[in-house]
Amino acid sequence: MVLHMEIIERIEAMQHWSEAQRRDRCRIVLVPTMGFLHEAHLRLVRDGKQRGDRIVVSIFVNPAQFSPNEDFTVYPRDFDRDRRLLEKENVNVLFHPSTAEIYPEGYETYVGVDKLSLFLCGGHRPGHFRGVATVVSKLFNIVRPHVAIFGEKDYQQLRVIRRLVQDLNFDIEVVGHPIVRDADGLAMSSRNAYLSPEERRAALCLSRSLRRAACMAQRGVIKARIITEAVRAEIEAEPLATVEYVTLCDAVTLEGIDEVYAGALLALAVRIGKTRLIDNTILKS
């Protein structure tokens, strides 16, 4: 049965809807997105259906998490296509606020998760995780979900949000969904739309390098320097690729480590042409 999907644009209306669902003892699941949806987003939605009674998907391209020289103005958007995809998935509510609704004139309050934001992408995107933590806090207060689902491709973001929920006592279960990859191994991302066919082929060096690292760890290589050098070499063999970082770190604290142990995260950020892509894997020796 196809359900009618509500499109809500105002904060007050979203809060009223959530209050009504909670009065009816319905379990609300939130899937926050920036739109331009793909199969990985839809997997989060399907996961959410197993965890609650009502599914809310938010679409909001958050200006607070983009630096001035980043791609906020050209970030891919296609609301009509997104709406059709979510209707097919029987989503209950599409929450689609404007920038002015989330950040009205005079807005000046931000949320920071200080230490976790220093590592990995945080060192290359100043203010990014402050913007993420702020908008996610607002979405939690607006939608009032029982469960929120995030993709593990943005692993640092997931760690920041889990810390946020713990520190600010949000009564919300945060679920990490495994990375969804295309058949060729490339992690699904809205930014993949920027890639030309040649760049798309070049981008496979990310997942290829992670597989190489996993094989090394399984063979007993535990030195972080040896693994990260091999990963860099694999990526740098691709002429269109420029490494931003390759880091082996603790999967909880994100602090760098010297040797692989259970729960070691290998994370990388690479530019393919002008497009910045991230990927990661958990290594086990």
Envelope shape: globular
The CATH top-level class label of the largest domain = Alpha Beta
Q: Mean pLDDT, rounded to whole units?
A: 97
Order of helices and strands: EHEHEHEHHEHEHHHEEE
What is the terminal separation in angstroms? 47 Å
Overall tally of structural domains? 2
Beta-strand proportion: 15-25%
Radius of gyration: 19 Å
Q: Any low-confidence stretches, pLDDT <50, length ≥5?
A: none
Name the helicity range. 25-40%
> Main sheet, how many strands, which sense, barrel?
6 strands, parallel
- CATH architecture verdict of the largest domain: 3-Layer(aba) Sandwich
Query: How many beta-strand runs?
Result: 9
Trace the largest sheet across and list its strands. 1-4-3-2-5-6
- Tally of separate helices: 9
What is the fold named in CATH at topology level of the largest domain? Rossmann fold
The secondary structure category is alpha/beta
- CATH homologous superfamily grouping of the largest domain: HUPs
Descriptive terms for the model:
alpha/beta, Rossmann fold, Pantoate--beta-alanine Ligase, Chain: A,domain 2, 2 domains, six-stranded parallel beta sheet, three-stranded antiparallel beta sheet, globular
